[in-house]
Amino acid sequence: MGALFLVAGCVSAEAPVSVEEAADLAPLGGPSTGMGGYNGLSPLAYHANVNRLLAALGVAAADPNDPSAVSPALVATGLLDTTAGRDVFSYAARCALPAGTQLASGGRVYTGGGILTTTGAWATAGLSTSQKEDALTCMVTHLNPFSASVPIFLSGPSVAGTQSSEPQGFEVEEAIWQVRLEGPNQTPAYYAWPRVNLLDTCGLLTTVSWITRICGSPLNTCGVQVRYDRGSACAGSDGVFSCNGAPAIQTTLEESDLCILHVDLSL
User: Fold this and answer.
1) Residue 236, strand partner residues
2) Which of 21, 29, 42, 149 has the fewest beta carbons closer than 10 A?
3) What pLDDT score was predicted for residue 255?
4) Which CA distances in Å does 130 have to 81, 185, 248?
5) Which pTM was predicted?
6) Nearest to 69, CA basis, from 127, 125, 115, 108
7) For the chain, what is the HEC assignment?
8) Which residues lie below 8 Å from residue 75, measured CB to CB, with a gap of 6+?
9) Rounded to whole angstroms, what are the CA distances from 218 to 6, 17, 211, 212?
10) What is the CA radius of gyration of the chain?
């Protein structure tokens, strides 16, 4: 756990906009209503396959001639050609397919988790741009750079509100996340609004930690924008926020898991 304090003295390396802005980091409202799960998707696997994932989200996931099988159109995207791609599709199914949906391909069964309320039609039709954004936002909340899978609680306008965060012990509001598809090529743009000061809680630089959470390394190779303007960019409470006029997803963690998610315990 020595890594917890490795950067504690490097406060000057923090983002130009200070994470000490209490108004933007303080909790808002009461317990969230949403859905729990586990994160554990490799950022490297996600980013290596994001273009194939977008192609897959643009076609029906289920075979029209066999609703229990992955569609030939999705197979043709190449997403299922590698182990990493298959893992990515597994998380996409958790996020975007209705709960209980099961699609088989190559001896593996992919199960819908019903996390999102906006993407249930994916089984039979390609998703719209806004639906793809919801799916990708759900995906990035599941990214875990250090393979230390921890329970997470998701809430937001597009998240199925079937569970409460409070009885399950989810107490720490980690961040608000959003993915937007920009331009004619629908290039993903990643946004994160931290809700907790990791320097105080884990001895880590907050901005660097969120870059690592999404990109897989401290180098911002994926172009994530870590922002501290939640007060002006986002509206909502009780874990349900829209930012820049579009749905976002908040992640809430158990207090004991916050540093586990953000610290490389192998060091």
Assistant:
1) 241
2) 29
3) 84
4) 27, 14, 11
5) 0.88
6) 108
7) CHHHHCCCCCHHHCCCCCCCCHHHHCCCCCCCEEEEEECCECHHHHHHHHHHHHHHHCCCCEECCEEEEECHHHHCCCHHHCHHHHHHHHHHHHHHCCCCCEEEECCEEEECCCCECCCHHHHCCCCCHHHHHHHHHHHHHCECCCCCCCEEEEECCCECCCEECCCCCCCEEEEEEEEEEECCCCEEEEEEEECCCHHHHHCCCHHHHHHHHHHCCCCCCCCCEECCCHHHHEEEECCEEEECCEECEEEEECHHHHHHHHCCCCC
8) 105
9) 14, 18, 6, 5
10) 18
How many residues can be counted in the chain?
A: 267
37-68 pLDDT, tens digit each: 889 999 999 999 999 999 999 999 999 999 99
> In sequence order, what are the residues at sequence separation of 6 or more whose Cβ sits closer than 8 angstroms to the Cβ of residue 20?
197
Bridge partners (DSSP) of residue 159 are 116
53 contacts 82 by C-beta, under 8 angstroms: no
Q: How confident is the model at residue 267 (pLDDT cuts 50, 70, 90)?
A: low
Please give the Cα distance from 115 to 124 (Å, whole number).
Answer: 17
| 26 residue type, one letter | A
Q: Give first-to-last CA distance, the chain, whole Å.
A: 8
Tokens standing for 105? 């391909």
